[in-house]
Amino acid sequence: MATVFIPAALRKFSAGRERAIAHGRNVGQLIDDLERQFPGIRAQLVESDDVKPSIAVSIDGEIAVGGLLDPVHESSEVHFLPALSGGAI
User: Fold this and answer.
1) Please, which residues have CB within 8 angstroms of residue 30's CB and are 6 or more apart in sequence?
2) 25 with 72: CB under 8 angstroms?
3) Residues 80, 9: contact at Cβ < 8 Å?
C-alpha cells in the first residue's frame, strides 16, 4: 500500500486529508483506488487516458515520466504536484 500525498488544491476531494493509503502496481491503479476512496479526484489528475500535463508525479522522490504506467511499490511515497511554469525572460 503506497502512501499518497494529496496537494492542497485537491484536498476538497479528500475531506481535507493530506495523505492517503492506496493500492496499485502503477500510477493508474493508484489513481483508480483514490477515486474509489475520494470520488471526483480522478478527473483532476487524468486527461485523455494519461496524467494531466499540469500535474507532475513524484514516486519515491523521483519525477515519473511514464504516466499512468509508472510502477509503484507497496512502500512507495507518491506525490501529485501541480506543475510549475515560468514566464519568458
Assistant:
1) 2, 4, 22, 23, 24, 72, 78
2) yes
3) no
pLDDT for 7-23, tens place per residue?
Answer: 999 999 999 999 999 99
In the block, cell 477515486 appears at 35
Which structural domains are found in the chain, ordered by start? 2-82 (3.10.20.30)
Mean pLDDT, residues 37-50? 96
Give me the phi and psi of 62, to 5 degrees please: -115, 135
**CA-to-CA distance for 80 and 64, rounded, in angstroms?**
10
For residues 36 and 13, the answer to whether their CB atoms sit within 8 Å is no
Kind of pairing between the strands at 2-5 and 77-82: parallel
